[in-house]
Design goal:
The chain is mainly alpha-helical. About 75% of the residues lie in helices and about 0% in strands.
Length: about 140
Amino acid sequence: MMKTSLMQQLKLGNDYVKLWPERVELGRYFSQYQAVVACRFTKKYCLPLALIVLFVPIMAFGSEYLNTSSVYALFIASLPIQALLFMANQSKQTLPPSLANWYKQGVERIQQHADESGKVNFKRVKPSFMDLAKLLDYSYKTMKH
């Protein structure tokens, strides 16, 4: 197995999170979607929150709180990185059998409805969660629901 760098893993996690359609109903069917929503939340709000946690105690109580607030701020600022690494790891995992069967049925349905010029290649052997995200993304962008 080839080792990937930290930056490649962060990019993979970010690509995986971006690929999932932003649809509320997905949360009812896929437990992974809740993690995607949490990751999006951390990417959006943790850095500003870390700055608040760093500066408010120092401004209110003085520089003696620099060490404590720095530790908390660093932890909060690291949450998006941790979430993206988790997402990168999840994206590589193969789908459980029941979800893999659902994925294969979805691929077959898309292949049946696609015209000859629009054939889309989806992985059929050992699909991963990244493949599932690609299928959902393609489905929501092209199919009528």
